[in-house]
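Lecture 7 notes: from sequence to structure.
We start with the chain below.
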Amino acid sequence: MSCQSPIVVALDYPTMAQSIEMAKRLDPNQCRVKVGKELYTTAGPAILDSLHALGFEVFLDLKFHDIPNTVANAVSVAAKAGVWMVNVHASGGRRMMEASANALQQLPNNNTLLIAVTVLTSMDQSDLVEVGIDATPEQHVKRLAALAKSSGMDGVVCSAQESKMLSTELGKDFVLVTPGIRPTGSDQGDQKRIMTPTDAMAAGSHYLVMGRPITQAADPIAVLTQANADLGILI
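Predicted structure tokens for the same chain:
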């Protein structure tokens, strides 16, 4: 049975041992988990096998951005490894995203969600200007999200602050994955565009990525359970 919670816990650790230790303190019925670049680079595919063995659905957050054939092959390998979700950069363009979507369509019984990253939640308008983008984060997110949907993506990664706009523009079935989620009173960290879990879901987000507020808590499962309860999810 698939996890009913929208919470995805980011296992942002430098070693496989630390990540598995944290995963064992969590509950696959109460959350999914995210594996990012640092962890995957140190642990490789073995981390996916270990997390799957513990019962977790895994978001492989490697943000592929390369020529179409390379990215299509990469997402296909990820899907074959059984990941629940994998992502690419929308800024890689239509041909790259279409190739990726087509690659997954060729796989029998594929259930892996294919998501495109719009604008990183660590970026603000000044960051966009520096890379030559003359648009606000909201305008650029809207443009990239529309391109992602028309290119066959299941959804996008975006700030929760853009969720309401994208849900309205692109439909409530277009999956919105939002990092930068901080429970009320949590430290903002290096995220600039953030929101509480309850507000993010009300705005139209489907999945909420949470890291340090859970993983650095003295009692991670208590924080996770409370976050689910705040969302009306009692597991």
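Points to note: The domain at 7-230 is CATH 3.20.20.70 (TIM Barrel). The CA atoms of residues 89 and 112 lie 17 Å apart.
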